[in-house]
Design goal:
The complex is a heterodimer of chains A (491) and B (497).
Chain A (H helix, E strand, L loop, with lengths): L8 H10 L4 H19 L2 E4 L1 H16 L11 E5 L26 H8 L3 E6 L33 H8 L5 E6 L5 H7 L2 E4 L19 E6 L2 H11 L17 H9 L7 E5 L9 H16 L3 E5 L7 H16 L20 H12 L2 H14 L5 H24 L2 E5 L15 H5 L6 H6 L3 E9 L2 E8 L5 H15 L8
Parallel strand pairs in A: 2-3, 2-4, 7-8, 7-9
Antiparallel strand pairs in A: 1-3, 4-6, 5-6, 5-10, 9-11, 10-11
Chain B lengths: L7 H7 L1 E11 L38 H13 L3 E2 L6 E4 L9 E4 L6 E10 L2 E14 L3 E5 L11 E5 L6 E7 L9 H19 L11 E10 L9 E6 L2 H20 L7 E5 L6 E6 L9 E2 L10 H9 L5 H12 L3 H9 L3 H9 L4 H19 L10 H12 L5 H12 L5 H7 L8 H14 L1 H8 L6 H11 L6 H11 L3
Parallel strand pairs in B: 11-12
Antiparallel strand pairs in B: 1-9, 1-10, 2-5, 3-4, 3-14, 5-6, 6-9, 7-8, 10-11, 12-13
Helix pairs in contact in B: 3-4, 8-9, 8-10, 9-10, 10-11, 13-15, 13-16, 15-16
Classes of the chains: A alpha/beta (491), B alpha+beta (497).
Chain lengths: 491, 497
């Protein structure tokens, strides 16, 4: 019998649609796999066995009743614990939300349910999506299925590891500075950050409102595109949502899979191919660029001079917004409450709750952001960072006058050993060096596996203009058709 | 107060006040500012809430278009410029009745700015500059249980009701108002009254100070003539027109006594106390919170279409001051009479009563007489006294038809105020109609004549004035329900005088 957990989402949906297998069987296979390996991987913070099986049964009943099923009906999905799920625990990887069961579904989850996908559970993440290794989760790190002594990237390490460990064929991540793409790169999976406003943030527990973007993760490009199609599109509950249909990402992925990139012009970002990246990463990247050229793409070098200021600008804007977004976690209405012994004042209880509930990285960013927004410093820090953001956006728009998409390695280095970078925040921040500019600009970008370095996956990043998400899927699918997908050693 | 305050006349002879007012108006939109929850006053605590107005993790605001429209209309009515592009901003501070621990407000880009409002004080027009009109969200309400002060410090329990959280709130800030001298308290009051009337005329809020849908903070400073403006204080909790006037006056007196004694004024927030009429210090602004304003990233900028704004401007109703001028002419009132109508807050009520069929004179009589007295006694606004313009017009109709005399009408009106029903219902139910049936009256007259033979003789002998005693007797037996004129005629007829 076929191992259902090794199949793509497209194939699983096909089997369910034809009745060759049931959604319940598919779901049970993945639940069993989680039961077998998650102790070693720790991709999940919560597995919703009953909810998943009930959703699967509903799909099977609809099929039996002759109803038409969507393209991903019956396919299991793992959801990053940053998205609210009605009645299902949502912690954002933080102690401060331990035990909180939201009274409402995020728009993304609502759309997943409506599409007949089966939510397996909630995946581990760096606390409040702040981190690049999932080591800052308050519930312990997730391990990379390629090498369980190494990190799976972050913040969405759980969503990426669940795919690489065959615990789920699809997952949802959120990308504020690279939290979908960098875990994708270091686990050999596909992670796409849609155009900002192309996917709804309603129900996404905010880290940095102007940057946060939920998006699809999968083991291949077409699966990611199908998931993107299901979750994307305008949402009136999110004011920053773009009132336009999702670009034809599925069509683009299918087109790209034909392996023809004739007429496509790609720009290699010179600032990201210098000394910043490991030699092994650069080697895999260069080979992939040659592969893209062989597929017919025209390759040019493009300089984006302000990208070098992206990291410092990001580490002012994101903490500033986070310092305000995280103010609501005070123990008054939901989540953890500490020190409410009848003798302490409300202010003391709020303060003790935050002290106990937030981890060190979250506190660091709240403090940086509070400082950057304070009167007398605002112009020098937050204001200046916004100007840099404008310049970076200009770099992108100038570049897109010359090329269809920009490419670079997704991340400067492959998965590093657990504990290697936790003592120096700056070393950790460097993991997102190549992914952050896109977030500041707001355009879409995808990481697609492009090779191995010392047996560990390397990702290639494709950055496209805003609302041209289809373009990056075409290039990604073409590269995938050339280099193939990458399978980790058995766990 | 242990210190003796100086006399007001002396204070204004030595010191010149500069005042400024910040007014918050809760808009009467059907739904809240960022979500679909209802906005009606009252309701069990925490029943008009959802993930958005509770600030639950992951929730996002979506701006209420009706609130934006109302704010622009207020701005236009106050002769403001309307921003072509502006943003909401977050005002960050921790307080339990603020669900997100930041308030979505506007900072350096208000929706409306640079306007004015003309206010009449003692027959003179005073132009009050409007600095800005902006839109923000209201907070919830906290009830601090235990502790001596009812404030957050020392409370044993704090209970929060979020029903009010997220109701659209418009803040209207005046420019500093110098040069009003001794009239400063009256100018402040007249401004708030005029502003209230303007907003009511726009139909965007019920502007009830006692329910908190209109709230006022008063800034006051004093300086010596010709010198720079002094340090100002901000007086909060000023919740009636009378309090606005008292708060300015009280703060002027307090500051003068401090300054006269060689002291200095601290820039601080002060609380006004309705019962004593004075203010006590709140938190000092010198150690005030840094609100860390920044543009709200969850909302897109506002860019009101200029054609739409022009439409809103063209559709503004006649503004209260101009309307009052017209009404004064229509009703033929002197300036003084009109002023008393305005002061009583009776313009709209009288207008509605006239529209319901009463003459202006009769409508004015009821609202300024019986009903104003009643409102003063019970301490409510005239509009809330318990009688509607339609009921007053109906009452007057009964008087005009001869079914009620003045005294009976007042009795019926008491019934109306007490909620017993319409004037006609009360008259019928309580059997208060004037006795016009001559048969019954004749019997009462005969009875009175028989009981008072001496008086009857006097009348018979031509002393007609003595009939008054007999009229009184008849009125007594008919419990006032007879028409005195008819009674008198009957008596004279019976006695052949």
């Amino acid at each position: 019998m076929t191992d259902l957990t090794k199949l793509s989402a497209v194939d699983l949906a096909g089997l369910v649609a034809t009745g060759e297998t049931s959604a319940v069987e598919v779901t049970q296979a993945h639940l069993d796999r989680i039961g077998a390996v998650d102790e070693r991987v720790h991709a999940f913070l919560h597995v919703d066995t009953e909810g998943a099986l009930a959703a699967a049964r509903a799909v099977d009943e609809r099929r039996a009743a002759g109803e038409e099923l969507g393209p991903l009906a019956g396919v299991p999905v793992a959801v990053k614990d940053v998205l609210t799920t009605k009645g299902v625990p949502t912690t954002v990887g933080s102690k401060i939300l331990e035990g909180w069961r939201p009274p409402y579904d995020s728009t993304i989850v609502e759309r997943l349910r409506a599409a007949g996908t089966v939510m397996l559970g909630k995946t581990n993440m760096d606390e409040f999506a702040m981190g690049s290794s999932t080591e800052y989760s308050a519930y312990g790190p997730t391990r990379n299925p390629w090498d369980t002594d190494r990190i799976p990237g972050g913040s969405g390490g759980g969503s990426a590891a669940a795919l690489a460990a065959y615990e789920a064929p699809l997952s949802i991540g959120s990308d504020t500075g690279g939290s979908i793409r960098q875990p994708g790169a270091v686990t050999g999976t596909v992670g796409a950050k849609p155009t900002y406003g192309g996917t709804s943030r309603y129900g996404l527990v905010a880290f940095s409102s102007s940057l946060d973007t939920p998006g699809p993760c999968a083991r291949n490009v077409l699966d990611a595109a199908l998931l993107h199609q299901v979750i994307g599109g305008h949402d009136p509950r999110d004011s920053t949502s773009i009132p336009a249909p999702v670009p034809d990402v599925v069509g683009a992925a299918r087109l790209g899979a034909s392996g023809d990139l004739t007429g496509v012009k790609l720009g290699v970002v010179t600032e990201f191919t210098g000394e910043g990246a490991e030699p092994g990463v650069m080697a895999a990247f260069r080979e992939s660029v040659e592969a893209l050229a062989k597929l017919g793409a025209e390759i040019v070098e493009i300089s984006c001079p302000h990208f070098r200021y992206a990291l410092p600008a990001y580490y002012l804007i994101a903490p500033s917004e986070c310092s305000s977004n995280l103010a609501r976690f005070d123990g008054v209405r939901f989540g953890l409450r500490v020190g409410d012994d009848g003798n302490r004042s409300l202010e003391e209880v709020m303060s003790l709750t935050r002290e106990a509930g937030f981890g060190p990285e979250v506190k660091r960013r709240i403090m940086i952001g509070t400082y950057a927004l304070s009167s007398g410093y605002y112009d020098a820090y937050y204001g200046q960072a916004q100007k840099v953001r404008t310049l970076i956006t200009r770099d992108f728009t100038t570049a897109f006058e010359q090329v269809d998409a920009l490419i670079s390695p997704t991340t400067p280095f492959v998965a590093f050993p657990i504990g290697a970078r936790t003592s120096d925040p700056y070393q950790m921040y460097l993991a997102d060096l190549f992914t952050i500019p896109t977030n500041l600009y707001g355009g879409p970008a995808i990481s697609v596996p492009c090779g191995l370095s010392d047996g560990l996956p390397v990702g290639l990043q494709i950055m496209a203009p805003t609302m041209a998400d289809d373009r990056m899927y075409r290039v990604a699918a073409a590269l995938e058709s050339s280099v193939g997908t990458f399978t980790p050693p058995a766990l | 107060m242990t210190t003796t305050l100086p006399a007001y006349d002396e204070v204004v002879a030595r010191w010149e006040p500069v005042i400024g007012l910040e007014t918050h108006v809760e808009l009467g939109t059907n739904t809240k500012m960022w979500c679909g929850c209802p906005t009606d006053f009252g309701g069990e605590p925490n029943t008009r809430v959802c993930p958005v107005c509770l600030g639950l993790p992951g929730s996002l605001p979506v701006a209420n278009k009706a609130a934006i429209e109302a704010t622009i209309r207020i701005g236009l009515a106050l002769n403001c410029s309307i921003a072509e592009w502006c943003r909401f901003a977050r005002k960050n501070y921790f307080y339990p009745d603020m669900p997100k621990n930041f308030q979505i407000s506007q900072y350096d880009e208000p929706l409306c700015f640079d306007g004015y409002l003309d206010v009449e004080v003692n027959g003179e027009l005073v132009r009050i500059g409007i600095e800005r009109v902006h839109l923000e969200e209201d907070t919830g309400k906290t009830l601090h249980v235990g502790g001596a002060t009812g404030r957050i410090h020392g409370a044993t329990e704090s209970l929060v009701d979020y029903n009010r959280a997220g109701i659209p709130l418009v803040e209207i800030v005046t420019k500093p108002i110098p040069g009003t001298g001794a009239l400063a308290p009256e100018v402040a009051r007249a401004y708030v009254a005029e502003l209230r009337d303007v907003i009511r005329s726009l139909g965007v809020s019920d502007v009830r100070m006692e329910e908190g849908s209109l709230r006022c903070d008063v800034n006051t400073s004093l300086n010596r003539p010709g010198e720079e403006w002094g340090t100002r204080t901000e007086t909060k909790n000023v919740n009636s027109l009378r309090s606005v006037e008292r708060a300015v006056r009280s703060e002027m007196l307090r500051q003068a006594s401090v300054l006269d004694a060689g002291g200095r004024i601290t820039q601080e927030t002060r609380h006004f106390h309705e019962d004593t009429g004075d203010t006590t210090p709140g938190r000092s602004k010198e150690t005030a919170t840094d609100y860390r304003y920044f543009p709200e990233p969850d909302l897109v900028p506002l860019a009101p279409d200029t054609a739409w704004v022009a439409e809103l401007k063209a559709a503004l109703p006649e503004l209260p001051r101009l309307r009052r001028k017209r009404i004064q002419q229509d009703w033929g009132l002197s300036d003084l009479d009109m002023q008393s109508v305005v002061n009583a807050g009776a313009v709209e009520l009288i207008e509605a009563t006239v529209a319901a069929g009463a003459t202006p004179a009769a409508a004015r009589k009821w609202w300024l007489g019986e009903l104003s007295r009643r409102a003063n006694e019970t301490g409510v606004e005239l509009a809330d006294v318990g009688a509607t313009p339609a009921q007053v017009a109906e009452l007057q109709g009964l008087v005009d038809a001869g079914k009620l005399n003045d005294k009976l009408a007042r009795t019926v009106l008491e019934g109306v105020v007490a909620g017993e029903g319409s004037p006609t219902e009360i008259m019928t139910n309580r059997n208060l109609e004037v006795v016009s049936d001559t048969g019954a009256l004749t019997a009462a007259v005969d009875e009175a004549i028989a009981a008072n033979p001496d008086v009857a003789d006097k009348v018979r002998s031509g002393k007609v004035a003595a009939a008054g005693a007999l009229v009184g007797a008849v009125m007594k037996t008919t419990r006032g329900q007879a028409d005195a004129k008819t009674v008198r005629e009957l008596i004279l007829e019976r006695l052949g005088a």
